[in-house]
Amino acid sequence: AQSVTQPDIHITVSEGASLELRCNYSYGATPYLFWYVQSPGQGLQLLLKYFSGDTLVQGIKGFEAEFKRSQSSFNLRKPSVHWSDAAEYFCAVGAIGGGTSYGKLTFGQGTILTVHP
Amino acid sequence: DAGITQSPRYKITETGRQVTLMCHQTWSHSYMFWYRQDLGHGLRLIYYSAAADITDKGEVPDGYVVSRSKTENFPLTLESATRSQTSVYFCASSETSRQPQHFGDGTRLSIL
Question: Rounded distance, CA B74 to CA B33, Å?
Fold first, then answer.
């Protein structure tokens, strides 16, 4: 069974500082991976996705993530955080293929990001 | 407007009552999903559907029923609500099994 671990429940950074949110996954085959962001009272918005190819993927709002197969990680980064980035971030892993997979995603528990001015 | 719409946005009901949460998408996406979001658990999949009339259980299906008679609608019914089903419910859709899921704004359900 696939699983996702986001080790940090809550992270606080100062505006302008760099950010890295950790995500580790467990899956027996090649996964596809996503990062989503959720603002209070809202649904989840896709930041970026990885299916194959270049292991460094660029997303919206200046975010990027790097897939490291050897470490089973897909960490999210941003070089300079803005106050509007304060939100909850979710990493998700899905199974490639059809059958009973049906594109199901398994989500991590989320990391809440607080940004200090 | 195109997108995915959930209704109602907020609902308060009592234990033992039946309640239905609605989800409607205008993209004609094949795949639709229902999740519940609880503190400390992230999002957990309740049910999903690969096409009209094809549904299957997710991680936490007990106490829930779904149907998908039309591609664009995927209602979720709590047949006899319990307090443990108090949660925020999200509906999502995707064009194929490999495409990202698009989420609605959620329904906050409180069961007293």
Answer: 8
A to B CB pairs, distance under 8 Å: 62
- The DSSP code for B85 is G
**Least CA distance to B56: which residue of chain A?**
A100
| Cα–Cα distance for residue pair B90/B37, rounded to 1 Å | 8
- Residues A67/A11, Cβ–Cβ less than 8 Å: no
Q: Is A7 exposed, middle or buried (0-12, 13-18, 19+ CB in 10 A)?
A: exposed
Residue in B36, B41, B111, B26 with CA at minimum distance from that of residue B71: B26
Residue linked to tokens 């049906």: A102
> What pLDDT, in 10s, does the model give residues A16-66?
999 999 999 988 777 889 999 999 888 899 999 998 888 999 999 999 999
* Closest-CA residue of chain B to A6: B42
Structure tokens at A42: 């809202």
